[in-house]
Amino acid sequence: MMRVFLLLLSLLPTLPVSNATADIIDQANVRSFIDEMVEKHQFDRSWLEKLFRQASIQPRIIKTMNKPAEKMPWYKYRRIFIRDERINKGIEFYRKHKSVLERAETEFRIPAEILLAIVGVETLYGERTGGHQVIDALSTLAFNYPKRANFFRNELEQLLLLVREEDIDPFSVQGSYAGAIGQPQFMPSSYREYAIDYDGDGQRDLQNSVADTIGSVANYLKRHGWQAGGDIVVNAKIHDEKSIDSFLDRGLKPSIPFRTLNQNGVQVKGKIAANELVSFIQLEASEDQFEYWIGEHNFYVITRYNHSPLYALAVVQLARAIKQSI
């Protein structure tokens, strides 16, 4: 494997070193990171130094990190994802890849529409996987974004391990401004842990393989505890706002017996077991109105993919809209 890495080193393109790239290799935290990767994982120092001379800091990434879509109110966030274009492309995607979706549904016991909706929300079914070199994105955030530097430093470590394990040119890995890779937008740590070779070609390829993407999303949800059957999230009505205030800060993990909500005036259509633990979610339906949702276990599982109730609800609603039309 080290021989392959030395070969990649020799093939790295020779680029002019700008002031920005020179700053990266000269930063103390970058030098410390290189030392750690050499000692901890036996990376070749000269390979790492050449890599970071060619990586560059992207200031616009930091600006984007400070304005994530999940900070939008729900009624604006929903418009991005629950729209005709995304629904129609989801129907097309389902028809084109029906066999692999149904295989994953059978093997992992996760509805096919949930799997394709996640890819639909993440990258418009693989059309918009991000225009950043992941090495640049993670270098920017690991070394120049103190708020979450530890998280992104770990992801940069995971990226370098990933490209070594998979024999990938590090500059070929494209993704989002936050370093998420490929059609399902897996961070490098998730790629290493949950990606699977679902098309049987001997490589886990989340940039180009739809089968690997679908299988990996299913594996991710299954490994995070997906339970077959049952509802995911249910719309709720309340009796009055004061009676539910104390339930709004309990987080996304189900922790409230449904009977407790019901005794405080929360009602739903359909049945939820009285002793089932649920979460209670309030979202902005408009500038002056709220809507309420009961999150069940699988809703929480979806939020392990992206820790936002807006994200999980968009996935569920897109999945339902697609299923109604296929």
Q: Can you describe this structure?
A:
With 326 residues, the protein is of the alpha+beta class. It has a domain at 2-56 and 130-180: Helicase, Ruva Protein, domain 3 (Orthogonal Bundle). It has 16 helices and seven strands. The strands form two sheets. The protein has a five-stranded antiparallel β-sheet. Strands 1-2 form a two-stranded antiparallel ribbon. Strand 6 (277-284) and strand 7 (290-295) form a beta hairpin. The longest helix has 18 residues, at 149-166. The chain starts with a helix and ends with a helix. The model is unreliable at 1-22 (pLDDT under 50).
Main sheet summary = 5 strands, antiparallel
Annotation field: number of helices:
16
Separation of the first and last Cα atoms: 46 Å
DSSP strand (E) fraction? 5-15%
- The overall pLDDT, averaged over residues, is 91
The Rg value, from CA coordinates, equals: 22 Å
Low-pLDDT stretches: 1-22
SS-based structural class?
alpha+beta
The CATH class designation of the domain at 2-56 and 130-180 is Mainly Alpha
Q: How many E strands?
A: 7
CATH architecture of the domain at 2-56 and 130-180: Orthogonal Bundle
- Which overall shape is indicated by the principal axes computed on the Cα atoms? globular
Q: Strands across the major sheet, in which order?
A: 4-6-7-3-5
Name of the CATH homologous superfamily of the domain at 2-56 and 130-180 = Bacterial muramidase
Provide the succession of SSEs. HHHHHHHHHEHHEHHEEHEEEHH
What name does CATH use for the topology of the domain at 2-56 and 130-180?
Helicase, Ruva Protein, domain 3
